[in-house]
Design brief:
InterPro entries: ABC_phos-bd_PstS, PBP_domain, Phosphate-bind_PstS
CATH topology of the largest domain: D-Maltodextrin-Binding Protein, domain 2
Distance between the termini: 58 Å
Number of strands: 14
CATH superfamily of the largest domain: Periplasmic binding protein-like II
GO molecular function: phosphate ion binding
Strand content: 15-25%
Keywords: Phosphate transport, Signal, Transport
CATH class of the largest domain: Alpha Beta
Order of helices and strands: HEHEHEEEHHEHHEHEHEEEHEEEHH
Family: Belongs to the PstS family.
Low-confidence stretches: 1-24
GO biological process, one term: phosphate ion transmembrane transport
Shape: elongated
Helix content: 25-40%
Number of domains: 2
Radius of gyration: 23 Å
């Protein structure tokens, strides 16, 4: 009888260990929505996070802000701040940054330089051919195709559009306005619309001789060229993590986490078409779900992003920016 008893005892111990062992994602389930620019990074972090279960829907920044304000989600993510309709008792948390890549689908064009005025004319439909003199003057010795430029822009309410239009307004001026809606920012409708960052990428893949703007992360899965854009120091710089980080470091951050971009600032080697994605979280909720959001944001800033951001095409915060972001995380409740 000793063997059966031993087996029963071993089984009981094994069963007790199964009952006591904490399961992965055994905590709260929290939901978020918003920025499609930051989606690759957020999904990378949430899939590796084990304290709580996190779901994220890359609806675009505009919808993310609305859903968070309405209480539909536990947290939001946006590349632009509220201009109206902000909820009470919440905080912004800058969670990730990175370049807006100006991508082009022109296989025979291996390198491309563009400045602000020329880029503006392309997106306004005033420069319509790839071999236009305005482009040729910036690309001496480069054989440019005699093909029509197909502009692709964001259809949805987009923080990426907000930041790119802000860059246009600062660098070029009229007629550009800062707005989440591209056609409002440009003051006209020109080109083909793509839904969210991934929609711009997918549209460009089916549209030869196209140009568009979206996150560097999504360009890594394409064969698109990336234009070198003239910065405030007069240099033509391609969208890279290092060049974006250099430009970001020269900017300032307010106590509420908002980064104030001076896109004309002379930063040698800096890529100026850079943005910040913000998390949005409650500060007087007093619930376990709010605690879970605080835990996830802390994990993104201090564990996930430092380890994984650069490989995914993003810039992780460091130094005084990270310190300020962590102070804001601490206010989530």
């Amino acid at each position: 009888m000793r063997k059966p008893l031993a087996i029963m005892a071993a089984s009981a111990i094994a069963l007790s260990s199964l009952i006591l062992a904490p399961a992965a994602n055994a905590g709260e389930t929290i939901t978020g929505s918003g920025s499609s620019y930051a989606a690759v990074m957020i999904n990378e972090c949430r899939s590796a996070y084990t304290e709580h279960s996190v779901t994220y829907n890359p609806t675009g920044s505009g919808t993310g802000k609305t859903q968070f304000a309405n209480g539909t989600t536990n947290f939001g993510a946006s590349d632009s701040l509220y201009s109206s309709g902000a909820p009470k008792n919440f905080t912004y948390v800058p969670v990730i940054a990175g370049p807006i890549a100006i991508a082009y689908n022109v296989p025979e064009l291996k390198a491309l330089r563009l400045d602000g005025p020329t880029l503006s004319k392309i997106f306004l439909g005033e420069v319509t051919k790839w071999n236009d003199k305005a482009i040729a003057d910036l690309n001496k010795g480069v054989k440019l195709p005699n093909e029509t430029i197909n502009v692709v822009y964001r259809k949805d309410s987009s923080g990426t559009s907000n930041n790119f239009s802000n860059w246009m307004k600062q660098v070029v001026g009229s007629p550009w306005k800062v707005n989440d809606v591209w056609t409002t920012a440009a003051g006209k409708t020109f080109g083909t619309a793509g839904d969210k960052s991934q929609g711009v990428k997918n549209t460009m893949q089916t549209l030869p001789y196209s140009i568009g703007y979206f996150d560097l992360a999504d360009t890594l899965t394409t064969n698109f060229g990336i234009a070198a854009i003239k910065n405030g120091a007069g240099q033509y710089v391609k969208a890279t993590v290092a060049a974006s980080a250099k430009f970001l470091a020269a900017q300032s951050m307010k106590s509420n986490g908002a980064v104030l971009f001076d896109y004309n600032k002379k930063v040698a080697g800096g890529y100026s078409v850079t943005l910040v994605a913000y998390g949005m979280a409650p500060t007087k909720n007093g619930t376990a779900k709010a605690d879970a959001v605080r835990g996830f944001f802390d994990y993104m800033l201090n564990t996930c992003a430092p380890a994984k951001a650069a490989a995914k095409g993003y810039v992780a915060f460091t130094g005084k920016f990270l310190s300020n972001a962590n102070k804001l995380v601490a206010t989530i409740d």
